[in-house]
Structures are given as structure tokens and as C-alpha cells.
Hints:
By secondary structure, this protein is mainly beta. The chain has one helix at residues 11-28; strands at residues 42-43, 49-50, 54-55, 60-68, 78-82, 88-93, 95-99, 103-111, 119-125, 138-145. The strands form two sheets. Strands 1, 2, 4, 7 and 8 form a five-stranded antiparallel beta sheet that branches. The longest helix is centred in the first third of the chain and has 18 residues, at 11-28. It starts with 10 loop residues before the first helix and ends in an 8-residue tail after the last strand. Mean pLDDT is 86; it is low at 25-32.
Amino acid sequence: MISNRRKQISFSTILALLFGVLVGINVIVPQKAFAVDTENPVIVIGSGVLSASTVAPGGSVSITYRVTDDTGCCNPHDAYMYNSAGTWVTRSAASKISGTDTDVTYRATLVVPAGSADGAYVIKSQTTDFAGKYTHLQELGTVSVVTPTPTPT
């Protein structure tokens, strides 16, 4: 005679088995160890390179610069433009264009607002690393905003 018995497995038994599998995977394939973050990230002084030294109101200028960190860098951040009075006038998101986890090159393209007064405009940036440590608000470069002289007709 053949018995048609069903065995029931409790929910807690299923969870214990699943946990055992997950722990086993972590033991077999250990995850990358995280380094201790001991330093703030640094925007490298003098690394800012402008696409142009002069720009007209309504025009754009790009800035490329480097950020270094001891373990891994960086969270999304912006570059800011300030007019000659020190007033913030525009900002743009910086994009990673090359580098490693600890030495990254970023680029941001800023559009000078139409109607901006002529003068020296300073571009600055600040960011945080993955541990939340921050850079100083660092000057990246200065661009001259010059309104073009109209051509006589």
C-alpha cells in the first residue's frame, strides 16, 4: 500500500533556510571591504580649466576641474557663478567626465544670464564624498563677462 502523505514546512523553517543560503553566499563570495574614510575630499586648487576667458551675457562657458578623496568621490554637485559684487547668479550640475574613485574630473557648463552686467565672474564648487565629508567652497576660475559692441549698420 502506498501512502500519499504530505509534509508541511513551517514559514519559520523557510525563512531559516533562506537566511542560511544568503549567509552562505556572503561567506562564499565576500563583499568588498570598505576603507575607513579619514579625509575630506579636496577640489584640486589650480585644476580649473575654462573653455573661454571671455563670454557675453546669454552665452555659456564650461569649467573642467578635479576632485580627490581618500576612499571614493563624490556625490552629485553643482558649480556656481558669482558676479563681481559676490552675488550668486547661476549654477549648473557638474558631470563626471573621467577619472577613478579617488581622483575624478568633472565638467560643468554655465549660462551667463542675459542682461548680466560686464565684469569678472567667479566660478566655485563644493561637494561631499560618499561618507558625507565635504570640500570647501573652492574657487575654480574667473571669466570676464563682456557685452559685445553693436556693429554699426
